Structure formats: structure tokens, C-alpha cells
Amino acid sequence: MNLIEYLRSSDDYSLDRVVKEIYVAKDQLIYQPGQHTNSIYEIVSGAVKLGSYGSQGQDITYDILSAPDTFGNLKYLNGQFFEFAKTIIPCHLRVYQLDFFKRIIVEDSKVSEWFNKNAVRRWSIAESRLFSIRSANSLERLQVIYNEFDKEVSDAENKKHHLFTLLTKQEIGDLTGMTRQTVSQVIKKLSPARLKKTA
Asked: What would be one Pfam family of this protein (predicted)?
């Protein structure tokens, strides 16, 4: 289901006051840890990284999102939400007022089903990624991440990008549980023909 198309097709919702569209340049913070946000974001175009800060203040990336993913703090975590969201390329985002978003995922059965499917999909991806970190060698971990992000994304200026190639070695390291140096060494061992999506 396309959420915004569904909401626009319904007579039950007046979207002008609760949904807006914004454009965010490359490498810009959308929100950061500790910042109060009353919004849920949907990616219309572009790519966003989610993460937090390590003990020495370094960025640690734990997810990469692209259209039509949603993200943001639903405020169910009792103040334990400590996440940043940052654009990787110019992004076109749809911004939902938090109270409205929380209401429709509870009260509207179709939106609830859509939200649950997306949440389960994200959990499944995270669990598969964690399993590969625990069970696979460095080459296999890199292949898992490549397969996941081997896709074309459009930015807010309608330019096309290969999502995997947008990731830095540090971001790949964060996602695979490897150091940046190990990622660099593994990539050097691979020919372009070997780093392909597997069936």
C-alpha cells in the first residue's frame, strides 16, 4: 500500500495541517540524539542513514533507508531514544505530525496493517544482518550488505545513484561488525564480477 495515496483517497483525513513535504540537502542532520521531534518521516526520494554516537563521540551507523521507508521516534521508548538521522544524498521527505501518525496506525486497520508489515520487514532485515555478523566470515558479511543495498535510488534532484556505492567504508564496517581497515582489505580482494547479487 502507498500510504499517502491511501490517505488522499479517503474522505476521513484532512492532510493539509498534518502532512508536509520538505527537501533536505546532502549530509544534513534531520534530527540528532536528545532532540525532541514531533514528526515521522517518509522518504519520497533520497537515502538516509540512522545511527548514534559511540563512547568517544564517533558516528555509528546501524541502518540505511531509502524510499519508501519511514523513520522517526514514536516516543514509546521512555526517553531511551538516542538516534540521529542524516541525509546521504539530497532527500525529498514527507513529514507526518506524530500525533496524527500514531492515531492512524491504531485506528485505521489498513494503515495498521501497512505499518506492521513495514515494522516486521525492518526487524527481519536487522535480524538477518545480526545473524550474518555472528556466523559469516568477512567476505560473506560484505556480500550480505552488498545484496541488501545493490539497488538504484533517486535523489531529490532526480539524479540516479547506486546505493551501495554511496556508503563509506566506515558505514559498511558499522553495518557488518568489521573495522574500516578490514572492509578496505576485503573490497580489494574482490573483482567486480564477484561482488554481485547472489540468487
From this structure: cNMP_binding
